[in-house]
Structures are given as C-alpha cells and as structure tokens.
Amino acid sequence: MPTIKDVAKQAGVSATTVSIILGGKSEQRKIPAATCERVREAARQIGYRPDSSAKRLRKGGDRKPVIAFFWPMDYRLPILASFINSISKELRNQGVECELVVQTFENDKLKDAAQVLQDHYYSAMIIGACSADDLVFLEAQNLTIPVVLINRTSQRYSSVCVDNEKIGREAAEMILKKGYRSVALLTASERYLQTRRRTTAFIDTCRALGIAIEESHILSVPGNMAGGSMGAVQFCYLDNRPKMLFCESDSLALGALSAFQRLNISIPADLEVLAISMLGQEETLYSLPSLSIIDLPNEKMASTAIRIILKQLNDSLTGNCTAIHEMEEADIILRDSFRLPMV
C-alpha cells in the first residue's frame, strides 16, 4: 500500500509537506497552490489513501478507531481479563476513545483469521500468546495497520516482551539462596513458546547451580487449577520429595495450594512454593497462604502496546511508521509461601 513517503517521492517534495497538504493545513502554512495540486495529483496517480483511523485518533470523528486484541482460547483464557482491563485503563489515561474488540483464536490457527487481517477491518491489532506457527504466518503477511505482539518477537511487527530466560534464572537463584539443593517442578502438559523458555532456563540454571531436579520430580499436568490440584496429589506420593516446589504458572500453584491444605501439608513449614504469575498480583495475594510470585508485567505490557499503537497510527500520516520493540521487567513479590532469608 502506498505511503506518504511514496507520494513525496512522486511529487518531488518532503513527506512533511505532503502531510501538511493532505491534512488540510496548506493555507495556514502558506504552501503554494501549484505544490498542493502536484501533491494531490501524485497521490491519485499512485493510489494513496490516507489512514482514516489515524485521522480519527488525531482529529476526532463520528467513527471510532477499532483496536482488536487477539488471545487464544485455551487454559490461558483467565489472563485475558487482566490485559483487557489494562488496555482500557491506558486508553482512558491517553484520552482516546475507541472500540476495543476481543478476537479469539486457536494456537497454530491464526491463519483462520487471515481474511479479517487482510481486509483491514480493524484500525490496529494487539496479538498475544501466538504460537511459533502463528508467528511464521504473521511474518508472511504484509499488514499495513499497526500490529503489536505481546511477549513474542518479530522482524516485521512491533513487540512488547519480557526476558523469559532471565525469569527462569532468577527463580533458580532465589531457591539456591534459600539453601535448597533439590526442587520439584509443576509444569503444564500444554507447552507454549515463552513458557517453555522460562522453564528450560529454570531447569538449566538449577542444574548449573547444583540444585537437583529428578525426572520423577517434574510433574506434568493440565495447565489449570484442577491440574495444579492433581499435581499436588502426585507430589505427595513422590519418593524423597523435595521441600521446595516451583510452579510454572500461578494457576497451577493456586490449585496445588488448595490440595495441600486438604492433605494437611503446611505451607511454608512442610513445603515452600514459588510460581510464575500470569493472572495478576491480586489473584495470588488472597490465597492461603499468600503466594510468592515472579509476576509477568501484563499491565505494563498492555499499556506499552497501546502507546506504540497510538504513536504508529499518528506516524502513519507522515509515512514514518516503523516497528518498535520494548522490554518490560517482571516483579518479584515474596509472600508467605516462600521468603528469602534476612540478610
């Protein structure tokens, strides 16, 4: 799709001049009528159409921009609420009115939404938790609207990520600081891209630090709270079971804590528990006991994604829209289920 830069090249003027003329401000900037006509003719010749979504964001209008948030339909669905809440909050903070649409999909089947993507029904898109196959599909698409990927990287589109390997390493290092030399791992049987990277980094770092993780102590269960409860029961039947349990997600951990209470295993006296949190800080604060977490910064990632989209919608008016890549830091929140020793 032609851009303002293409119009500028065709007309022999700067992209800024094109933006001023097509934005209806040529008179107040005293741009000659001949130049204005040359720019408009160049736009007609190459088939340039201004981005109406960007204009509505900048100037207001009857139709609101439509931002779609893509999220997969699987055990990670509860995480959706925290993202939608954070996106809505950031839009209010920015003073932007728009329609926010939730577009669900199945991992490895994002291509089923190809027509929706290519028809430019949406003004911009935020895509979360897509698979490796979905990324391959996206890289092959020449989407001209702003697209921001959550915790995935792309050569073509913008992204907001965390350092997943760092999160795994930090979890192992905290367990070592507590003096544990063995640990059990509760992991989801459905393995996803960045979850796998965090868990692999955790296992590799544990072994490098001399913390034993026996194969029988890696418990793979469905990735929801029911799976966590199931994993806790399996843990109780382990031989030489460790006194430290690391959970791949807070959903697993919350289910496990409930089961441990029924099984009369005291947390943290009999067993300490640390988890990666995806649901948000409040959901893990009121568990019994309160859960210690490395919290994925969903709110910060959502806010950053919106800021990128608003910038790119405005930049599209001048043809300077380029991919933006941002990193956010996870928060370590230690509560009753696992605490580091006082220094």
In a few lines, what is going on in this structure?
With 343 residues, the protein is of the alpha/beta class. It has 3 domains: 4-50, 434 Repressor (Amino-terminal Domain) (Orthogonal Bundle); 58-162 and 299-330, Rossmann fold; 164-296, Rossmann fold (3-Layer(aba) Sandwich), CATH 3.40.50.2300.
How are the elements arranged and paired?
Layout: H1 4-11, H2 15-22, H3 33-46, H4 52-59, E1 66-72, H5 80-94, E2 99-105, H6 114-118, E3 124-128, H7 132-139, E4 147-150, E5 158-161, H8 164-177, E6 184-188, H9 193-208, E7 218-221, H10 225-236, E8 244-247, H11 250-262, E9 272-277, H12 281-285, E10 292-295, H13 298-315, E11 325-327, E12 331-333
Parallel strand pairs: 1-2, 1-3, 3-4, 4-5, 5-11, 6-7, 6-8, 8-9, 9-10
Antiparallel strand pairs: 10-12
Helix pairs in contact: 1-2, 1-3, 4-13, 5-13, 8-9, 10-11
